[in-house]
């Protein structure tokens, strides 16, 4: 059984499974801690770090506590392990230098790179989460590094390098603390962009912009045109995506009633996008300069499309409520049949142009959308003329 357990640990065991395994019996723990098995496992899973720690000095390989190091590595950060023997002390310091260097590299990345895999509409909220988690991780790392003494001989250089890493981590932690404070306030509007009813989103834009301007004045990190401009660009993109997710072609092709709910939503989306223009004026000296294209190009495109959608909805409402009612009041069956045939022709043309549009705001559907709008206006004019002619024939008593 012990041999089987040791083989499982070396080949297939997960960190969580091994932690449970250690609680089972003293005998199993003895096999789970087998030095050679853990050394081989660490070399197989993290070869670059293994080579870095061992180098050309074989005694470092023998002085490492490989089981603990493997657990530490799977938890992202080492949790600290200091032994008294000089070789073990030096090996442990080498490990801390590696761990802190990796943490510095990870926490110094460009935010745009960190958020690369996030969906566009989620990036502002994910940026807030990133700074909160960075603050927590760096605090934990700071607490775990502890105090190290210089020692003697060759270890003094290692101690100086680790001390330099610790100072850098303290600066990164202070930076993350400051940014997390502002993003704590921004988290609410970022969530509103994602989840709140569109009718309420316009009301969060102006306060959000005020907080962003306060961040520019106070944050050493975001008081930078590139970094703040990147954040503003991500917010602008998130607003645009929110609108494109909320408004679909289905509302125009299959909407019933008077389209008022859809018209209200489209109008709210337009107001939200218009208020976003309060974020930056190129003549302003308050902050910037920022890339106007990044801040407003997509927003303006979506706003223009919203205006076109609203016009189309108003036309459809006029046709399906006012004009239909007037034709029905004529009490002329043949005229009603002709009008209904005109309606069916309009519906057929609109479906031909618009049914293939899965994203109303996608550039590749611009031509189909424009052709549909042209067809709608043409049918609307014909229907309106028909009703006018019909009314001229109705006798007045």
Automatic annotation (TrEMBL):
Domain Dynein heavy chain tail intervals: 92-354
Pfam families on file: DHC_N1 (PF08385)
InterPro entries: Dynein_heavy_tail
Name of the featured protein: Dynein heavy chain tail domain-containing protein
